[in-house]
Records
---
Amino acid sequence: MSDSSAHPESGPDTVAATGQLTGILRRIADFGASVEGMFGEGDHPAFIQIDRLDGPVHAVIDGRKTTLFGTNSYLGLNFDPRCIAASEEALRKWGTGSTASRVASGNQNGHVVLERTIADFYGRPDAIVFSTGFMANLGTICGLASQGDLILYDSHSHASIIDACRASGATFKPFRHNDPADLDRLLTEATVPASRILVVMEGLYSVWGDVGAVKDLATVAKRHGALVLVDEAHGMGLYGEGGRGVTEAQGADHLVDVIVGTFSKSVGVIGGFCVTSHPALQPLRFLARAYLYTASLPPAVVASARTAIGIIKTDTALRAELWRKAERFCRSVQALGYQLCAEPGPVGSIRMRGKAQGLDMWRSLLARGIYVNLLIPPATPGGKVLLRFSVSAAHTDEDIDTFLGVLSDLTKVAQIA
Ligand SMILES: Cc1ncc(COP(=O)(O)O)c(C=O)c1O
């Protein structure tokens, strides 16, 4: 970030002389300088601009044809002709935006039908649709827990879960990642009744790409009598016979009180949701400020989300295709000598030795038309530098072979595996 774009409102004098800044402006300017310094000269991982998209995973970046291995479009549904047609029709009939909250004039037929669709998909009577996955966690967790309650959350949880814990007013503590014994310890030591404890975890953790120990953790939580919430943001569409996520795949549905998810990954649009079977939780939408005080989803997004969920529910071949490609890719990466953070799956990370190697590798891949995500501390658990990839059903076998070929060439040149 350049000085002139950091704080336009701070005026030319202060911008020109950042050394004279104090207080909030000083802190933000120092932070900006440290972000800039983190990556040195060359392409900056946070500022890559996609100039054109030719489908879900093919792009033009800086004039170069690039295959995207860093999207969350696991099933390629953001370019599915049926989803696009549904969006186009809704756009013409309903206009570009809802222009109001669900509780004002933003509650359109499409939103209500989408809630029915997602509730039916999860086989639960109640669903609330939010405007993003982040807001689904914020609204649901803050709606459920408040002062005097305790939230126990997996230490690898997404920022939206942690921010929700902070905003809820409840006491919150992390348990060791995927560790039922540690959760058991915290539940045993808790000084509030178990009925006032909310246990939060994810189905699939997208930084390492490892599956949550949902069944084991939820079993412990239920033994104590706590409520269980699982975020299936990345698991939805990937795991389970019905595509509902890791909770379904592990046969843990009956142990989970609330499932939260997003439409921004396999569903291919934007938006979030929570589903539950508890009649007592029906008033949640009136407690969820991230639902009440924001505009509802645009109609075109609602229409394609509904269509995409229908496809996820019925098109098991698409899911099988994704897994075939993901497993082939991961096994081949391992065969080249690289270490993955988790079992092969559609999202995962290759361990790098440090920031210099990670940045070098990331830039070398990009220069050869392969886009992945570079993750560095503090955004990574365990302080590791990682190259995160995601495989999509929309990748061709040739795309995967090209990535593997480039990785192999880079390995030979730099001996970096
Ligand atoms: C586990 C988890 N929850 C919630 C979110 C937020 O979802 P969205 O990007 O749709 O707001 C993400 C996004 O990466 C996520 O990984």
Note: Residues 132-134, 137, 158, 160, 202, 206, 231, 233-234, 262, 264, 272 surround pyridoxal-5'-phosphate (CB under 6 Å).
---
Amino acid sequence: MIFVGDQHFGVNSANKNILSIQLKIWYNYIIPLARSTESDIVVVGDFFDNRNVMDIFVMNQIQKLFEDTKDITIHILLGNHDIYHKDKLEVNSLNLFAKAFDHVKLYDKQCIIEKGENRIQVVPWLLKDEQFIIDESVDLVLGHFEFKDFYVSRTYKAQHGIDISTINSNVPILSGHYHNRQRNSNIQYLGTTFQIDWNDFKEEKGIYHFDMTKKFKLDQLKFIPIDTRRHVNIIIDVDDKTITTEGLSEDLICKKATKMSYDIFRGHKLKIYFKKELAIVKNFIENIEAICESYNVEIIKEQEELDIESLIEKASTYNIESTLVDIVDDIDKPITEDIISRAKELIDS
Ligand SMILES: [Mn+2]
């Protein structure tokens, strides 16, 4: 079985570049692995992102994905993002797909399924006050749980949710809901399959495999990393004359007059920061503004879009004077190269 975390198809207002990253993960990793290992695929909730509206392009791409995977059983349990009402699961974004495709198994109620040597308890999103008791006859629980004291973001632990001490069971639990990969005793949050937002900065993402002809053991669950779009900080320090890159598989520092390959920035989501020397920077920003305009990239002169947590985290690490640009859609465009090469000229001057 291949275990896949929150997908959030249609995320970021159905951004097409993100959708194409998500589909590539299915077509290049998940589907070939399912075929070569003769595995089912299970998605542990939040298949879609939007609770209210279905984007037509996203809908058609997912229809094609299911048409292309009729030889594979795909289990999807409902997450909180898949449901329309807060107090019931019946109205959701997956009903139509489950009706249209026999190989798509939708779980909108708690139940037990069997796979190979394993009995699996499946627990879709729990409504307020809904009871959850682990059936001790199962080998594995799959769910979309809100457990207390797990990381909601990289730095913040959930203050609400189920207290795991009340569960009183050693049955392994694989869960969606929180997006960062984390494990505490018998509970493993799978994490998203790619870096959705800055909360995933520097986190390795991927999918999981277990041969279900054997009894499930959490310690033997295999993590398969997927290297795709990352969130990357580029810090331009005019005083130190360095350009530091954080968030790639390894952090890089480019010093004055050293050659740089711009290709490493392609396909990632970038934020470019400036440190110090605002007088020079101001001139530079004015230069860059003209470039950005032709690419529809917004210049963020203050850190206005950063949430407070990451702001505090950042502030403790750097004395960052300004965020220059937050490049959302730069997959193949040369804008990054433009900006970095001008920054390079600036530090080399
Ligand atoms: Mn989610």
Note: Residues 231-348 form one domain.
